[in-house]
Amino acid sequence: MDNTNFSFRMKIKAVLFDMDGVVVDSERYFPVLERYWFASLIRKAWTDDDEANITGRSASDIYNVLKEQYNLGIDKNLFLKHYDKIARDVYENKCNLTQNFLNVVDNLREKKLKIAMVSSSPYSWIEMMLKRFKIRNKFDVVISADELNSKGKPSPAIYLHSAKILNLNPENCVVIEDSKNGIVSAKNAKMFCIGFRNGINENQDLNSADKIIYNLKEILNFLAVL
Questions:
Q1: What is the pLDDT of residues 31-47, one digit of tens each?
Q2: Which CATH number does 3-26+96-222 carry?
Q3: Residues 49-76: b if buried by 16+ CB within 10 A, e if exposed
Q4: Do the Cβ atoms of 174 and 213 come closer than 8 Å?
């Protein structure tokens, strides 16, 4: 047995899942619905690089980024209200649970690991998803950037806050992320981070993750909990 891997597995006490692109395939739909709206706001084409830059951020942070880069004329409250309409369509009508998520999370819970969902999205969006798929009971805690005044990823604040809520040290946590901003957040919080190539995030640089997987089931192999 590899002693390093063994000691790593022994200290892991929690698995923290990002929501968009990890728990649900919502990142398949957001870019399509955002593209024309954002292009109209910034008055230029919305590129893949633009999309990659905002992925993983909170809606409030996205507004701030666009305001800083393009001097948006739209009021922030109006921006967030329209974004909420997009989110409602995605979470209530379009997205699906990511393949193997239920099987993986049930296996992890059987091994007495704490399970958290840590999202830059507001609670109202998270609740839409949890209610539709009836999975609130799969998580010990659900953390939103709302708890930090919408200060989401790439800031490490949301993951440091999550560790505090779980009463764990950051090194006791494994994070599953599908975006560069999410991975930066987790790594700066000193957590082990698994980058998830979900088939729809080719525009994301996941190279700073400690490990990259292509199927959520690989988490079980990695943590040796099969």
A1: 999 999 999 999 999 99
A2: 3.40.50.1000
A3: ebbbbbbbbbbbbbbeebeeeeebeeee
A4: no
